[in-house]
Design a protein that fits this description.
178 residues, alpha/beta, Rossmann fold, 5-stranded parallel beta sheet, 8 helices
Length: 178
């Protein structure tokens, strides 16, 4: 039986073979060789990205809606350093990358999870060549990273309107104020 420490610390890109309750961690894939492993995913492939620091109803709804745009959903998370450069506030992200990826991977609407260290996922999008790019409703299509290349390949770019007005930053402020 693995120790509690081993069970609690999955490593990105190194999925553990374990009982059915941990199979979601097999969805976490290292960005190196992304084009190779993404070829195993059903097409059309939907790509989205974000920090997903404090997972909330808005995130879950948005990811479920993104999944409906294609046959598989790949979610790329900002690494901790990349997330800090976004300027979301002191101490962000609260949850380390490994925990954020595990939570997103546990969602039934998500088929694969990876990460990126750059400020944007542009290189990852170019390597993966998804048929659909999706972002939340606060992103106009013309500002979505990778939109121009995706549209030029005949793909779609979708800004999904918010169904539930939620914000990790606002939630954190509420928690801090008590």
């Amino acid at each position: 039986m693995p120790s509690a420490r081993a069970a609690a610390s999955p490593r990105p890109g190194k999925p553990r073979r374990a009982g059915p309750s941990l199979r979601f961690e097999e969805k976490i894939r290292a960005p190196g060789g992304a084009a190779r492993w993404a070829a195993e995913l059903a097409r059309p492939l939907v790509f989205t990205n974000g920090v997903f620091d404090l997972l909330h109803r808005g995130h879950v709804t948005y990811l479920a809606q993104a999944r409906e745009l294609g046959a598989a959903l790949l979610v790329a998370l900002n690494s901790d350093a990349s997330a800090r450069r976004l300027g979301k506030g002191a101490g962000r992200p609260l949850n380390p990358l490994e925990d954020r990826m595990a939570l997103v991977a546990a969602l039934g609407s998500v088929d694969a999870v990876t990460w990126f260290d750059d400020d944007t996922p542009a290189a990852l999008i170019e390597a993966l060549r998804p048929e659909v790019l999706a972002k939340g409703g606060d992103w106009p299509v013309e500002q979505i990273v990778g939109a121009e290349a995706t549209l030029a390949r005949g793909g779609r770019v979708v800004s999904i309107p918010f169904e539930h007005q939620r914000s990790s930053t606002a939630l954190l402020e509420k928690i801090r104020k008590g």
